[in-house]
Fold:
Amino acid sequence: QVQLQESGPGQVKPSQTLSLTCIVSGGSITSGDYYWTWIRQHPGEGLEWIGSFYSSLSSYYNPSLKSRVTISEDTSTKQFSLKLTSVTAADTAVYYCARERFIRDGGGFDVWGQGTMVSVSS
Amino acid sequence: DIQMTQSPSTLSASVGDRVTITCRASQTISSCLAWYQLKPGKAPKLLIYQASSLQNGVPSRFSGRGSGTEFTLTISSLQPDDFASYSCQQCDSYPWTFGQGTKVEI
Structure:
């Protein structure tokens, strides 16, 4: 069965770029059957959808973050990544990667990583 | 953006209780509504999709219903493993949005 694991630094300095990787095991991100997604949760708050990637020609981002976010894939290493530029303390959160089903298949995020805490501080 | 509002924010209950969590959308949405269980340090778990469909492997004590702007998640008989936070999510229109969460505690 597919498993996801987030990887990346736990601390990033303000104004720098937050880079996280999601390692996919037990499946392929090139199957074409799912979106690959990043979601975050600020301390004490609800979940926030960051964006979903299907291919270089089909990705969707939260408008609130769109100018700073890139989600991309590395098919050779079975990973997909998140880059968030110009971070501030407001980007401190637990970051999750997840697999998203197409609406025709029911929608929803059916596989998640355990999450990784990223703090933005100098 | 579609705002999702959950109630209550916190729910105190006991093993064996029937509990219901409500999620209200700021506008009418399709039945594309999912419910998740969240526990600290663990991967969130999809419980319900399309408002009322039970995800594979999820115990039948979990059920969902609703349409339009009001949706509910019900746990028919609360088990020790169910003490957790629960969140709804709409997939009717981008950006996908979540409720703020409901914590079910003893």
Notes: The first strand of chain A starts at residue 3 and ends at 7.
